[in-house]
Design goal:
434 Repressor (Amino-terminal Domain); D-Maltodextrin-Binding Protein, domain 2
Length: 289
């Protein structure tokens, strides 16, 4: 018989609580309690503090590592841009990380806490273990978050990233899901090729949808073909290098450099054309309409 050595498990059993009872007291899932006791999951800051309060001990006594108290540098997925930063928490591959709140996130959610003066404040228990993190330029992803939460009990964080940038975050195990749309009718296996080239650990490729991509133009533009637009000297709203939309634009323009500015996301391309500071931009039909 295996003797329990995990402090959470030992203290729970000493109180004759089930995992479900402890989960309810801590505001986390029973699966999260099981994973913490099996040391398959590193608890978030808020969860560690909640468990320590329940067992009336310090976080260091419970987990043997003072870093979980939130008084040392946290484990950021990527560094915030200011010394005071709002953050979200999520657990990816059993490792809890903090994600700086981004104004351009595709489904804005209330922040989980604030990093200020070396201290994590306002942390909420139970959110890290119930969060799915996605990097994608899919403009519809955020619209699915509410339905996803209702059907699964998990929340969804969607960070706007081009396909290659999203794959790089997946390669670094900083997100659960990376969205990409490089495959075309002429090259149907392009997505799989990029995944195999960039991801060096196990990953599954799921096909979710077929997108229509094209050039968004101002309502008064009378152009009738892609070729006629590409030949003109226009101010473009261009996606960042490495994105599928940017590859499409570079292909259309050939050796000519685009005139205009880079923007972040398909919706930003459409908005730039709508507001008048760009005459054209490559984006998906969903954003253009």
């Amino acid at each position: 018989m295996k003797i329990a050595t995990n402090q959470v498990q030992l203290r729970r059993q000493a109180r004759k609580w089930s995992q479900a009872e402890l989960a309810q007291r801590a505001g986390i899932s029973r699966a999260a309690v099981s994973a913490i006791e099996g040391e398959r999951l590193s608890p978030s800051v808020a969860t560690a503090l909640a468990l320590a309060a329940i067992f009336e001990c310090s976080v260091e006594e419970l987990f043997g590592r003072p870093a979980a108290t939130g008084t040392t540098m946290p484990d950021w997925a990527w560094q915030p841009r200011s010394p005071v930063a709002r953050y979200w928490e999520a657990s990816v591959q059993g490792r809890c990380r903090l994600y700086p709140v981004e104004a351009m996130a595709l489904n804005p959610l209330p922040h989980d806490g604030i990093w200020q003066d070396g201290v994590l404040r306002e942390s909420r228990p139970g959110v890290a273990e119930n969060t799915l993190v996605m990097a994608s330029c899919d403009p519809a992803a955020g619209l699915l978050a509410a339905e996803y939460a209702r059907s699964s009990g998990f929340r969804l964080l969607v960070f706007p990233r081009g396909g290659r940038a999203a794959l790089d975050l997946l390669r670094q195990r900083l997100v659960h899901v990376a969205g990409l749309h490089y495959s075309t009718e002429a090259q149907p296996g392009r997505n799989a090729e990029l995944v195999r080239a960039q991801i060096d650990h196990g990953a599954r490729l799921l096909r979710l949808a077929t997108w229509d991509a094209g050039i968004a133009l101002a309502p008064d533009d009378q152009s009738r073909s892609v070729e006629s637009v590409a030949r003109r000297s226009l101010p473009w709203a261009a996606r960042e290098s490495g994105s599928a939309a940017r590859e499409c634009l570079d292909l259309l323009l050939g050796r000519r450099r685009f005139a205009g500015r880079e923007v972040n996301g398909h919706a930003a391309v459409a908005e730039a054309v709508r507001s008048g500071w760009a005459a054209a931009g490559v984006c998906v039909r969903f954003s253009a309409e």
